[in-house]
Request: fold
Amino acid sequence: MANDSKENFSGEDVREGLAAVISIRVPEPQFESQKKIKLTNVEIKGKVETLVLEYLGAYLEENPSVSKKIVAKAIDAQRARLAAKKARELTRRKNVLEFSTLPGKLADCQESDPSLSELFLVEGDSAGGSAKQGRDRKNQAILPLKGKILNVEKARFDKMLTNEEIKTMITAMGTGIGKEEFNIEKIRYHKIIIMTDADVDGSHILTLILTFFYRQMPEIIENGYLYIAQPPLYRAKKGRSSFFVRDENELTERLVKSSSEILTLTSENGKKIGGEELFQTAMQIRLYKTHYDRLCYNPNLKMLVNLLLKHQIEIDLGGAEHIINCISGLKEIYPDYKLTLNPEKQGNNVLIEANGEQIELSFNLLENFSAYDYSQMFDEHLGLKEALGEEGLVLTEEKEGESNDFQSWFEVLDFLINFGKKGMYIQRYKGLGEMNPEQLWETTLDPKVRTLKKVTIEDIVESDGIFTILMGDHVEPRRNFIEENALRVKNLDV
Reply:
């Protein structure tokens, strides 16, 4: 049988889990203590060992399946023993005499009080180097991580402890690892901040690190010590001024805000909208678009949603049957609509016909229809109709005699965004290494201006299931998850 360890079995490895009952008769028994637990007659020991070796050896030769089970158990026992040994070695906490036990690439802080100390787990040596230069040495420690760490969801405990990046993290935090060795009281930092790039590799590394903490050190999450840094995704420059923005949403707000200070929109009924009112209206359009896009990930669902909104049909509950009942209400408004179960699909599809057009919806699609998103969107739709008039009416932008016509609310939002980009240089950061130390401090390290996301566990069962599906060994559940949610993904970076 394969044993990936270079060490030989110890006696404890082989004996672990095995028990034997031996009955002997001794004229003058001698015991180790008054409790009579251990027999100490010297002449008996040799005879028992000889007989056990002879008969047990013969039994194992005649029963190879039992032999294999004992060897397999011994391999597991050895792995557990070696893993526990490594875990003990990693539990030593830094003090005056143990300074050299900390990882060499850890740039530690001067503060010794864990409640005032921060540890940044930084993706890449380049970004780690910049972070070391830009940090506050008093209370901020930097630990660069090279490449992707091991996926602990798939790896054995002993294999995990051979991964250099994981060993480095364990040693730096000082808590130890494993049920017997982990001690949250020994943690050296009360803020452990994961700092990765904004690209797909950075997201993958973030997921691997979160998996490690969730599976091996959940107490760190439960105590509120784990955070995710929010480095800027964009740097915008216009003229001599420049600013950083954290994500696409913040960039959109900035662009629309600047456009709203210059432009005035006039609806067909003569209502003029500008300044703060225009900005707030554009933000309502953006929120409406978010719910609309999330709900209309399928072309047929998009047609259905437009149909329901057109006739102002409200849906309070989810589920295919309830939605079908709501759609049936269209017959009262518009008798030409027909709602039938498609016999070709064994009654599993709903067919809506109107004016020669057909919308075919599967029950599975309707079951995933988010009634909550629709309810939010329905209210937003009514608010926008009140502010701008019917969707599809002409809105005119007036500036220095120039005008632009729009046919939908979404076109208005797009125009405001693009107008705000005029004369502006926008840089998208793909990696933390693209920022110099001063920029890292200004955006991500400085406690006065930075933004951190605190990692929490709201639903243990749901969280456990997600980690098992996405990070586990079984491919089929992961494939199903991806196929079911692929069309809902936002900001895909490939």
Remarks:
- The longest strand covers residues 118-123.
- The CA atoms of residues 282 and 413 lie 6 Å apart.
- The chain has 19 helices and 15 strands.
